[in-house]
Amino acid sequence: MHIDLRQLRHLIALAEHRSFVAAAVAVNLSQSAFSRSIQALEHSVGCQLVDRGRKDLPPTKQGQVVLEHARRLVSGARQLSNEISQFNGLEAGELRFGCGPAPASWLVPSAVGSFIGRYPKARVHFHVDDWHSLSKRLLSEEFEFFVADTRQFEADPDYHTHRLRPRKWHFCCRAGHPLAQQDRVTAEQLLSYPLAATLRPPNLRKVLADLSGRPDFAPNVECESSYALLSVVLRSDAIGISGTYSDAVQNAGGELVRLRIEGLDEQREELFTRYGIVSRAGYRLSPLAEAMIEEIKLVDGRDEVGKTYEIHNLAV
Questions:
Q1: How confident is the model at residue 253 (pLDDT cuts 50, 70, 90)?
Q2: Do the Cβ atoms of 305 and 243 come closer than 8 Å?
Q3: pTM of the full predicted structure?
Q4: Number of C-alpha atoms within 13 angstroms, CB side, residue 105?
Q5: Is the per-residue pLDDT at 124 higher than 90?
Q6: CATH number of 5-72
Q7: By Cβ atoms counted within 10 A, which residue in 56, 204, 207, 245 is the most buried?
Q8: Fold of 91-166+274-300
């Protein structure tokens, strides 16, 4: 059986775009040439890989197997080429990693900014998503590591984790909000207003539900972008949640007020982040990945983090 990496890349593109036309455009081929490439791959493996009878063109059972191997082989070939380039000269090469929404609001951009100053010829791709999606992409070898909540990985021997400094979460509202002038608010008062947040850390939702006497609740507005969520908070009576180190807080220009919740211990573990760097155990990281991780650790260790971006009129 002859396996052509180029044909495997085309199969991956078809699985992602679910359209021969869109996939052909994505790989810069004519539709006829793209179709011939998929047909040639099917001929090589001796079976149909795509169900052409369905509009969304899902892979067949055999196609799913080939697709899983294709992703690993294409990723491995890219990593091989990339690592050789890096060993020949660290300034060259490509780095792919992921991060959660909160690290993407300050820590990772700061580290990337310093990193590209040291390695201006390097190409950096970082993808922002939730920890579950990031772990899938790590396992499929699309990423070398990611920065996100580590709770699900710390006890798993298949992963290596490096904990970053815990940072505190705060509930906040706009300066003109009805609750803004109160020294403390109850959880019930807090939840009487719309909540614009994807609650993190994970157990904080349960803590608020218990304090308010509710069995559970859900945010009114959910999003993976802290900038978008705080923009909603600044334009409404919605309550938000943010770390005071976030660039989104700084860019709010002093228009956010932190809310102190009655009965909520300020030192509870649920009020602090548990972020870290996650990679696969037993897998060697490329020189660029190691250099980026060191940069993230350096930025994370700076004393001024968490002090520079204070929410209006309340000490951190």
A1: low
A2: no
A3: 0.65
A4: 26
A5: yes
A6: 1.10.10.10
A7: 245
A8: D-Maltodextrin-Binding Protein; domain 2 (3.40.190)
